[in-house]
Amino acid sequence: MPRELKADKVARALQIEERMLSHYGEGACSLDYTDPFRLTVAVVLSAQCTDAMVNKVTPHLWEAYPTPADLASAKVEDVAQIIHSLGFYQSKAKNLVKLAQMVVSEYGGEIPNDMELLQRLPGVGRKTANVVMCEAFRNAQGIAVDTHVFRIAHLLKLAGPSCDTPAKTEAALLRIYPKEYWNFINHQWVHFGRDYCVARRPKCDDCFIADLCPSAGTAARKKSKG
Q1: What does the pLDDT look like over 48-105, one tens digit per residue?
Q2: Element (H, E) at 126
Q3: How far is CA 92 from CA 46, 47, 48, 75, 123, in A?
Q4: Biggest CA pair distance of the chain
């Protein structure tokens, strides 16, 4: 693909988003939650794990520890026992108890509507903070870049080869997409990554944005050559 002018890339990106909105609407969070605290905990648990697995575990966690104060006073080993089916459950259990303690002692029992304060919480990085800001508060300060968003951004050539980290990829997307779309992109692209742009078997022939994707058909051609 010849070098794309910035204006052309922005126009193409907006066309992609128009189709995403038409196909998925604003997108829906795959994690079950009832408030910002429970969403934050669920996103922390989802690292290296599927949302479906997290949704099986969190009802048991909230049954045992209904409030931030309850979780703050929990024993780490008891929390670990509840979430043991998830990856890295021991470190996650430690982070959850510390997170709850900090929410209670420093934030008055409420998850803060603030990117910097969120990232002070144990286990909460920029991706998690972005999800909480977008989903819980509808106050997007960025775009959450998980494995789906990272892969799709590069396949769509909206992030270049030098964007080799989630942070650099996010920065590239923020330069392209107006803030009014930041709330939706992660959820839309996660669903798109599961439905069409599957990592090992992309369904390019059925994809509704294939004509806007410079990588469409590439994986199939590589497979046929192999």
Answers
A1: 899 999 999 999 999 999 999 999 999 999 999 999 999 999 999 999 999 999 999 9
A2: helix 126-135
A3: 10, 9, 11, 13, 7
A4: 59
Active site residues: 127, 146
The stretch 158-182 carries a mean pLDDT of 96
Dist CA 165 CA 77 (whole Å): 33
Q: Which pLDDT value is given to residue 3?
A: 82
Classify the phi-psi angles of 49: left when phi > 0, otherwise alpha if psi is within -120 to 50, otherwise beta. Answer: beta
Q: What proportions of the chain, in percent to the nearest 5, are helix, strand and coil?
A: 60, 0, 40
Q: Is the pTM of this model over 0.85?
A: yes
Which string of DSSP letters, residue by residue, matches 43-106? HHHTTTS-HHHHHHHHHHHHHH--SHHHHHTS-HHHHHHHTTTSTTHHHHHHHHHHHHHHHHHH
* pLDDT tens figures, 208-221: 999 999 999 875 44
Q: 3-state class of 204 per DSSP?
A: helix
48-78 burial string, b = 16+ CB within 10 Å, else e?
ebebeebbebbeebbeebeebeebbebeeee
User: Which tokens in the block code for residue 169?
Assistant: 């990829």
